[in-house]
Protein: DhaKLM operon coactivator DhaQ
Organism: Vagococcus allomyrinae
Amino acid sequence: MKKIMNKSKDVVTQLLSGVAFAHEEILERVPKTGILLRRHRVSNQVAVISGGGTGHEPAHSGYIGDNFLAASINGPIFTPPTLEEILMAIELADQGAGVFLVIKNFEADVSHFLAAEASAIAKGHLVKHVIVNDDCSIEKVNFKKRRRGVAGTVFVHKIVAGAAAKGHGLAELAQLAEDVVSSLNTLGVALAPGTLPGTDKCQFQLAESEISFGIGIHGEAGYREEPLESSEKLANELVNKLKSQYTLKGGSQLAILVNGLGSTPYMELAIFTNDVRRLLELEGIQVRFKKTGNFMTSLNMAGVSLTFLELKDEQWLNYLMLPTDAYGW
Amino acid sequence: MKKIMNKSKDVVTQLLSGVAFAHEEILERVPKTGILLRRHRVSNQVAVISGGGTGHEPAHSGYIGDNFLAASINGPIFTPPTLEEILMAIELADQGAGVFLVIKNFEADVSHFLAAEASAIAKGHLVKHVIVNDDCSIEKVNFKKRRRGVAGTVFVHKIVAGAAAKGHGLAELAQLAEDVVSSLNTLGVALAPGTLPGTDKCQFQLAESEISFGIGIHGEAGYREEPLESSEKLANELVNKLKSQYTLKGGSQLAILVNGLGSTPYMELAIFTNDVRRLLELEGIQVRFKKTGNFMTSLNMAGVSLTFLELKDEQWLNYLMLPTDAYGW
């Protein structure tokens, strides 16, 4: 699979150098690390930081900026950063009011981030966290919910960081983050699998005419394959699966995120967004906030995920709408 | 080729409905037309408008906003809008100070836009235009320059609209636009051809291991195919070809645009950007402004284009840097 890259071993460091150059007004790379740090430091405010493996661009560096993240920690492709780098990021980001970690629910991510949190606390930092588990797909083998952390994570970033920018403390942010996560669901579908740099092998097999429901953001296959009939049918399936996670009624208020998985053009995302709009309008569900674009990708996977956040508090909407210079928003 | 869409005949109207919904705070669709109009009208200021076929998303609607376009006119896929729709957009956008048209250099685009300009002038509007011809690739058959209007067009939008927002009149904008265009060059390369909605046919043939230099933004093949060796080699070829259009030296100042053609992930664009940075640094050429992302796509074509604008006037940089709420910037 052709990719615009050099040696496989250099992909992550060259990616980070490219991001640091392209957005040098906003962020800087801590030399020889996977840490990207916001240039403008704000004191007397909790620093919200996030991270994980690379391969999800513009996540997570695209959310560094005003009213948003103070830093991102970027590991190898689809592999979380080390305890040491997370700890270093906490120490660099802490401006005296503590650090809040947004962690995606994958075993290795949770383990590294929580170990770094413990180390930082032992060193005298105030640190709290939330574990985002918005994926409501099921496992093919046992039909259990997967509840991984996927694209909805960017809504958590924005809301929690917005509250931090408005002066809320760590304990309040932790409660807010839990409330948001419990109201957040995402479901993704692949039209084509991704390929890792340096390989020709697709991350899973998918017939030319089929799509895979319930995929992950590390190239994981979904729970069911079936033909792609139309954007409308796809929107119908995702909207219904997401709705089943709530007790929505006419007048319920949502924020929605239509997320491209890496190689799906904006045209298709916009057509899909239009179909989601029509379905929700039919039911009288109000979309108070929406984003359409590439927010949390999976290398060059083709496809889309849909996120619902039920807006249970008007403040969440205010935080989502705060202006930012973050390049991924 | 699987695409997230419904019936082929509905692609454009559903795309425009999706865009109008996703960005309803910024723009609105004029019902039953391909016109997207900025909600906020600014009087005593020239309205800068642009357009062309669809299939280039986020162009051109992604450039509607503060300090940017007042409207975009969107035709069928890769087909310019009609004289009538362009004329209607001019009439709707004119707030009394006239309208400036940014036209990409394709025969049908130029013919429709100039006919609409003539009609609008006959109706009493003040209208001027620029024809953008930044493509510096060559035709395979006769080695003539193609000089189509491609991704660099978004720099023309931003600079001319910035000057309009600062109160410059039509005649000044026309001169400014000519100066910018004469300093603007773009070259694109495809890793994989695009496919039109409703067909399985690639727009041109390309061996699995090869890339095509000098492609257009309507799926046109380039002037030469060769294997993709590395991002570095690709950057080297594009930088050298672009440099040959100028007499750059150490201290020369550029704005650069690294543009994804539709299905190329941000990771690859960032790695390529990093290679361009290294090459320009070696020569002491200063990059004063840069953008990396999908700005002027060609459906689901994979690949990248590189644009150089030699900054001959400090004001151009100021206009590029003016803040905007346009969703494609």
Notes: The longest strand of chain B covers residues 184-192. Chain B has a mean pLDDT of 96. Chain B touches chain A through 53 residues (CB under 8 Å).
